[in-house]
Specification:
2 copies of one chain form a homodimer.
Chain A lengths: L13 H14 L8 E2 L1 H8 L3 H14 L2 E4 L3 E4 L4 H23 L4 H19 L3 H18 L3 H25 L10 H8 L3 H32 L1
Antiparallel strand pairs in A: 1-3, 2-3
Helix pairs in contact in A: 1-3, 4-7, 4-9, 5-6, 6-7, 8-9
The structure holds a DNA duplex.
Chain lengths: 229, 229
DNA sequence: GACAAGCAGATTGTCGACAATCCTACAAGA
DNA sequence: TCTTGTAGGATTGTCGACAATCTGCTTGTC
């Protein structure tokens, strides 16, 4: 008989669902940076009272993707080039640490999961689903954090990807180009399976730098435009 | 005429004050790990309705010092040896990064602030005020994060010190010993003023390791006791 | 026309009450 | 004895309404 492993049951509070809905709207760019969230309107749309909505918004404020000014409102965070720069430079450091911690803990299950997530990225890429592509790519990247066996590190990473996902989504929406067909994660996955930890760490740095430059350029353009307007 | 630099005005929402009150109670150990927070009772004590209290609790949950289970309650997080280990190992990495980023930005104001915070620690030590000593020591340590000019890094650090402060406070309360009179931060401050960045980074690691070992031993003892009971 | 005072209108912050859920104790049945 | 079902009380989750605050406009004065 197969070993059943019941996971925790789904959160059944309205608050949790609101958090999920709002987060998704923000991370996919449906709610744009700087935009104000009108409590009454959103509550009506969701057929929910303002109490759980406000609690949900508090969570997202602490998560770093909303910002709140007393008696003025709650807004989607603005994306500045410096924010992206900050997030990425920290991400590099964390990546190195995560790889180091994960390295000795790699096993067959790790490699299987790595392949599985890699496959998910490729599938989203083939389907030209940019939103899903970003999601899956970040999940692929997040495996080393989940495997590092350090809950604080994992939390930190999860806070970071919220923003990164938002940045990427904005970038993609702005470009509105078909996704590159090549498999940019091939090397990353291969190195994580290999024996040279330093090489994997180095690649993580450089691989990130690649997308990073594009993002930064986009963000700088954004700022110039908005400062003109 | 001196340049006036008006800081932001105080938050005037009840929510913000509740957050401050609760956070302080948790970080000083007045609310013990694992303890349940009864909304009705706390609301009555603070002469406040449950709405702002619940929002405040949501923030602290996201901050990582409370944990919430739907329909069951909100609890102060438990302190396990692994949590401390995780937090500290990440802290080492972040310290190194913060020092690196700060190094080139050091100026006279930095050195002055460093001395000022160092003095605050010494003063709290002389006054035998352990709670304040922990606070000031963490603030001294946090200067490199404030100076690193990386908002994401700073946020991450602030999330970390919430827990560290809680751990330290518990430790101190448990020992209930007079605080060591020697100045353990002397070398740290001197190296941050010096010219050898690597040395400063190395010391940050080792300096932390020192207190860390004590904390870990304490936490392990705690866990054994609770598993027995 | 410029500027300050003051008045709606809209929006956020807070409150008290109700609904949904959980935990405990206890009884009934196998 | 162990399990299962079932009230009862306590606590959390949610709602609708009221209070506090901000914003933009209007009005009046110079």
């Amino acid at each position: 008989m197969a070993k059943l492993d019941f996971g925790p049951i789904a959160d059944t509070t309205r608050r949790a669902e609101i958090v999920a809905l709002l987060r998704r709207a923000i991370l996919t760019g449906q709610l744009e940076p700087g935009q104000k969230l009108n409590e009454l309107r959103i509550a009506e749309q969701m057929r929910v009272s303002r109490a759980p909505l406000r609690e949900a918004m508090r969570e997202l404020v602490q998560e770093g993707i909303l910002t709140s000014i007393p008696y003025a409102g709650t807004f989607v965070i603005d994306v500045t080039a410096k924010d992206i720069d900050d997030a990425y430079s920290l991400n590099k450091v964390l990546d190195e640490f995560a790889i180091e911690r994960t390295w000795k803990l790699r096993d067959q299950r790790f490699f299987d999961e790595l392949d599985s997530r890699h496959e998910a990225v490729k599938q989203a890429t083939r389907a030209l689903d940019t939103t899903r592509q970003i999601e899956t790519a970040l999940q692929l990247h997040g495996l080393i954090y989940e495997w590092a066996d350090n809950s604080v590190l994992l939390e930190t990473w999860q806070r970071l990807i919220s923003r990164l996902q938002m940045y990427f989504a904005l970038h993609q929406r702005a470009r509105n180009e078909p996704v590159p067909a090549e498999d940019v994660h091939e090397t990353y996955v291969r190195l994580l399976k290999g024996a040279d930890m330093r090489a994997a760490q180095r690649h993580a740095r450089e691989h990130i730098d690649l997308d990073f430059e594009e993002l930064l350029a986009y963000a700088r353009g954004l700022e110039q435009r908005t400062s003109k307007g």
